[in-house]
Amino acid sequence: DTGVSQNPRHKITKRGQNVTFRCDPISEHNRLYWYRQTLGQGPEFLTYFQNEAQLEKSRLLSDRFSAERPKGSFSTLEIQRTEQGDSAMYLCASRDMNTEAFFGQGTRLTVV
Amino acid sequence: SQQGEEDPQALSIQEGENATMNCSYKTSINNLQWYRQNSGRGLVHLILIRSNEREKHSGRLRVTLDTSKKSSSLLITASRAADTASYFCATGGSWGKLQFGAGTQVVVTP
Questions:
Q1: Which residues of chain B are within 8 Å of residue A39 when distances are taken between CB atoms?
Q2: Domain B4-88+97-109 is classified in which CATH homologous superfamily?
Q3: What are the pLDDT digits (tens) for A65-87?
């Protein structure tokens, strides 16, 4: 297992376009988290999955954001009608009950 | 909203010196964790200290926790250029989600 994998690493998109990011967690981890990090700040929690169930969403996750984890393995985060304020690093993390969180390298989104 | 606040925001030291950074938090915790982030990369877990612990060591890292003051400190001894990174404290919330501070940016010059 090579750890948490996120794709793409970088995404540049025009305002108004839709984007989708993918996260492949460590295979035996049933807990998966998405965070957003803007420049000079710490990561902020977006949403949490336990297996395929989305159990918590932050108020940061507006209606334009949707996340799925259809089979309890990989997860996708989609942003519709992107805005410049969506430019950030999107981080995925996974863990099981007895471990710390392992983070992926992140997807850096730039909305132009 | 950020749970923790790190101090200082930035720290510049020379190789071999010690680096100390502090974290204050707002609510009661079960544990507090420290993470490192190299520029533009993901976060790496460094150490976890539980609320009933006062001090913990891991290699060149020493973490203290004072729950009465709602504060923690991270000490990196004998720093190396490879320690150049941002360091974040994080407290655990419901479902194991983490609430991070804004971080301390550490630069270690040879």
A1: none
A2: Immunoglobulins (2.60.40.10)
A3: 999 999 889 999 999 999 999 99
